[in-house]
Amino acid sequence: MTAPSQLIAIEGVTKRYATSSGPIEALHDVSLAVGAGEFCTLIGPSGCGKSTLLGMLGGLTAPDGGRVLVEGAAVTGPDPRRVATVFQDPGLFPWRTTLENVEFGLELQRVPKARRRQAATELLGPLGLRGFADKYPRELSGGMKQRVAIGRALAIDTKILLMDEPFGALDEQTRVLMGEWLLDIWRRTRKTVIFVTHSLHEALFLSTRIAVMTARPGRIKTLLELGHRYPRAMESAEMVALRARLWGEIREESLRAMQ
Ligand SMILES: Nc1ncnc2c1ncn2[C@@H]1O[C@H](COP(=O)(O)OP(=O)(O)OP(=O)(O)O)[C@@H](O)[C@H]1O
Ligand SMILES: [Mg+2]
Asked: Does residue 101 fall inside a structural domain?
């Protein structure tokens, strides 16, 4: 049984992929429980199964062993009423304006036009895109495009937001600002976020907890509990020590992944 406070439960999950050179084990006995309102970050070497795990939460990939539960029910496929995903590539429709892109998920849900227009328009302020409603993706910067993609996910108003390296393609300065922006949005909307990043700064700045994964086959190596105290003083002795610890754990796994 899953306790009601555990919005997400990953229990003993294993995943193998068939490849041309034989089966590979992507995930091995991964267990993780995430409570409502958490900002949980997965970090670990390339190829350790972070996207695979997120894909399972989004119902895009099925586990070979174990279970993935959302609100106590096994995930059997995509459920846009519960879970929205943002990927590294914003994946906007070039022929749609900012507002029309943000509206897209609501359209799929057959929300009447006036209501979805209103919902999308209300989001433009928090997205920092108020003056850009009628612009097309080609007229937006990389950070703006990513905010539109996040807006599209926020518009459908799911409890759970999965984010797979959403700022990975941005320059470092934009990325830091986007992190601050996301933190603000998350604290206001009280969503549960599962976030994937390779950035130690992002993980430490944003997360209530960080799950460090091992080199493939991915397992949860360490869970760092950071709690709900924000904003994070990144230069404080506590954060500097945490960063060193986090890097130590990841470095070891990244070296193993390269062997
Ligand atoms: N559809 C697939 N078919 C075969 N192998 C796959 C498939 N998807 C992922 N893999 C393999 O599974 C392992 C985990 O991949 P995954 O994309 O989940 O890693 P990741 O942690 O997200 O990596 P990165 O940090 O580079 O994004 C990798 O070895 C990858 O090659
Ligand atoms: Mg990935």
From this structure: yes
In three-state form (DSSP H/G/I as H, E/B as E, the rest C), the secondary structure along 200-246 is HHHHHHHCCEEEEECCCCECEEEEEECCCCCCCCCCCHHHHHHHHHH
Q: Please count the CA atoms within 13 angstroms of the CA of 109 that sit on its side-chain side.
A: 19
Residue 227 to residue 124: CA distance in whole angstroms? 30
**For residue 176, is it within any domain?**
no
pLDDT tens-place string over residues 181-231: 999 999 999 999 999 999 999 999 999 999 999 999 999 999 999 999 999
Interval between CA 140 and ligand 2 midpoint (Å): 25
Number of domains in the chain: 1
Answer yes or no: is 208 within a domain. Answer: no
User: What pTM was computed for the model?
Assistant: 0.95
What is the best residue among 10, 16, 17 to mutate for testing ligand 1's pocket, by most ligand atoms within 8 Å of CB?
Answer: 17
Give residue-wise pLDDT tens across range 95-110.
999 999 999 999 999 9
Spatial distance between the Cα atoms of 3 and 107, rounded to a whole number of angstroms? 34
**CB proximity list for 237: less than 8 A, separation 6 or greater:** none
pLDDT at residue 2 greater than cutoff 70: no
User: Does any domain span residue 75?
Assistant: no
**CB of residue 17 inside a 6 A radius of ligand 1:** yes
Residue 104 · residue 154 · CB < 8 Å = no
Domain that holds residue 127: 89-157
* 213 in contact with ligand 1, CB cutoff 6 A: no
